[in-house]
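Reply to dn_fold:

You asked what the input looked like. This is it:
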Amino acid sequence: MAEALFEDFLTCPICLDPLKEPVTLGCHHSFCCSCLNNSWDHNLPGTCPVCRRRSSREKVEVNFALRELSLSFSEQKKVKELDVKETSTKEAKVINVKICSSHPNVPPLFCLDEARAVCPVCEFSLHSQHTVVSGNEAEKRLKKQAQTQILVLKDQKQGYEELEKTYEELQRHQEEQTVECLSQITHVFSHLQQILKEEEEKALGVLREEQRKQTQSLDLEMHKVRDKIAALTNSIQDLQKSIDTHSFLSAPTQTTTAPLPRPQPKAGLLLDQAKVLGNLAYRVWMKMKTIVTYSPVIFDPNTAECHMHLSQDLCGVRHGPPRALPVVPERFTNESILLGSEGFSSGQHQWDVEVGDLPTWDIGVVKKSIDRRGEIFTGSKFGIWCLWHGKGRYTDSSGQTVSVESAPKKIRVKLDYEKGELSFYDADLLHLLLTHTAVFTETLFPYVSVGPAPEAKTKEVRVSGKDSTCSVGLSTDRSRHRFKFQKIKQPTSRS
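and this is what came back:
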């Protein structure tokens, strides 16, 4: 019944064939693209041929999800029809066998080796080395074989149906991931844009203040010049009047013994552009640098066990209630483990992990091929090297107690791949806590595990994003457009 409804859903209402290049209208009826266009050419365009509802869409586009579903269903239907045809053919070989014309009344036998009916009188001697059974027995065997094949096919079908449900779950989770990423991207860029806007307003404020100051100074100098021009104009008019009235002898006049120097503009009346624009982009970048962080390890949410809850920036993780997560090959299912997004197969690397006062945590590296479905055991034999803290104790991968003078709040992890060393330090005091030695042969991934912390002030394990004491340098690999770690100098341990 369900298969019939499914087939009806994937059938075009116009041509009554499986949908080809399906398009879906606003009323949710679907048609073959060519069938719908032909219908609209001969009837009212833009109207649904089934419900006659006017479509609000001016242009219809192919429904790719429905197309893939229709193609998959058509292929499955062809496989079923072929299986039924082959089964019918085998049964026909048993039921509709032609009896030997020389011995029409003798019941035929069936040769299993050649899969055909034989006459027991004429041909039996030719099949002495073959397995020959009666027709009824052959029919029973072939039916049993067909039933076995049906069971196998049903099991395969069930497997693909379960896989289909898994893919549907993955599709829903992928959509949730997209929404989450979109929200975080919008948040980050909104914050950066806000800072840029504030810095822009600040720079414009400096420009306006400089303009006001210089304009005020220039207006003052202009006023002095105009007063001087007015005074000189009056003096010129008085002298000219004396010349015109011939009153030099009766009214004494002031004579100039030497010409005065020509006036020059005062310095410092233009805008100080160096003050306004000097290192503008650098100053803005330094401002943004104070609020952004870089993390040498970014966690991969697809590896997180259901109790591992990541922070939005993927640099922190806490233990929380279990979540419904799709089971994918990269995810851990039995242990509360989370891996970094990038592995290391060479070089030297280090990262700091803030553990605070969390009562239970586990940090280190694991090999890429570690079993993510079964029970996890620590140690080089199982490809996991770590420092574990719980019940007030610190232990290494083999369960041996690690001596710690005071509980560290931040652990520095240092990996030297070629040397085969993994070291753990108290990042604040640079005290060496533990060193693992091994021969690394495959890619290693940073990992963390954290237990419940109901009473702790610290709620999550977090990879440090900004640490002035960290000696990891960054350089740009132009050929691959990504960051890579430079080699770092081993810090000196203090006893």
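The CA atoms of residues 180 and 312 lie 8 Å apart.
Hope that clears it up.
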